[in-house]
Every structure is written in C-alpha cells, then in structure tokens.
Design a protein that fits this description.
Elements: E1 10-11, E2 28-35, H1 43-51, H2 53-59, E3 64-69, E4 76-81, E5 86-90, H3 96-108, E6 116-117, H4 162-180
Parallel strand pairs: 1-6, 2-3
Antiparallel strand pairs: 2-4, 4-5
Subcellular location: Mitochondrion
GO molecular function, one term: structural constituent of ribosome
Protein name: Large ribosomal subunit protein mL43
C-alpha cells in the first residue's frame, strides 16, 4: 500500500449544490492554452489548435478558450473553475490526442482539488463482503431476463396476512356460535 496519500489534503465530499437537478452547469469556466509558435515541445498543442480546437469550442459553449502564444516557453494549460480553483497542467511534448484527452478531463471535473476523503464513521474491522443493497440476494437470472417473463410473473405463495387471519378466526367463531345456539 502506498503512503503517498499522507501528504494529500483531506476532507469530506463536497459537490456543487444541486448541479444537474434542473440542468447541468459545466464547472469549467475558462481554459487558457499557452504555447510557443516555434518550439518542438509545443507541436501537439499547435496540432490540436489547428485541427480540434473549433470542435472543442463548439461542443462546450459555456467554456471560454484563450490562446496565449509565448516565445521559448513550455506549453501548458490553465483551467479556471466556477468555484475559483485553478488547475495548471504542463503539456510539454504531448501529442494532439493527449492534449484532447486532458482537456476533456479538465472539462468534466468539478474543480474541487484532489483530496483524501474522510468518513464520518470508523471501524477497526472493515467488512470484506461489500455493501448491502436490496438486490444482494436476488436470483441471478433476473439480470438477463426479458420482461414480461412467464416463470418470474407467477404469483408467489405467501403466508396469509394478519388481516386475513383475523377474518378467518371471525368466520370460524361465527360458525361455532351458530352451532351452539339452540333454536326455540
């Protein structure tokens, strides 16, 4: 097990409140691509700008894209999110596809810094069985069944409910009362 998580900040899960309840609001506010027009380490960024940047901008109208050419500097991307966080990514010697994948990654993030999550509960003996859910002990054939299904639609023989048992007891008592009552 790695100990690299020791130096990460820790905290509880925070999400943008109710994002996606009415409509989804992308959290990436703006992205700045800084690159050199001549340097070889910026080739992938320049190729991305020439071929894929317009498609990226059209598919993400809520995100502002800035291009900032700089002389003799390594390429990078700076993403700014709605919560005020900034993320810096060096794009030195990345290919066009790698730049596209990293921009897609930045676009889908919430902007909350990567952190080690804490839990409100603690146990010295964690379970190895997994989390229980209502489908844990269901039959496996339900997963692949086409509904309506003949065998799965058959009524299950259930024990009578408490109400049905009381009605039955009442009917029996009515019968025994009528037999015990003498006729005049």
């Amino acid at each position: 097990m790695s100990n690299s998580h020791i130096f990460m900040p820790s905290g509880f899960i925070r999400t943008p409140l109710q994002n996606g309840l009415g409509r989804y609001i992308p959290q990436l506010q703006r992205i700045t691509l800084k690159f050199c027009k001549n340097h070889g380490g910026s080739r992938g960024v320049r190729d991305f700008i020439e071929s894929d940047l317009m498609d990226f901008a059209k598919s993400n109208p809520g995100t502002v894209v800035y291009l900032k050419p700089r002389r003799h500097r390594s390429p990078c991307a700076v993403a700014e999110y709605l919560n005020g966080e900034r993320e810096y990514l060096s794009l030195h010697e990345f290919t066009r596809d790698e730049v596209q994948k990293w921009l897609s990654y930045m676009r889908t993030r919430s902007g909350i810094p990567t952190m080690r999550f804490r839990k409100y509960q603690h146990t010295d003996y964690p379970t190895i069985q997994g989390v229980w859910n209502p489908f844990t002990h269901q039959a496996a054939e339900i997963n692949t069944a086409e509904f309506p299904h003949e065998d799965l639609s058959k009524p299950v023989n259930l024990a009578p409910s408490a109400t049905e048992q009381l009605i039955e007891i009442f009917k029996r008592s009515q019968i025994t009362d009528s037999k015990e009552k003498p006729d005049n």
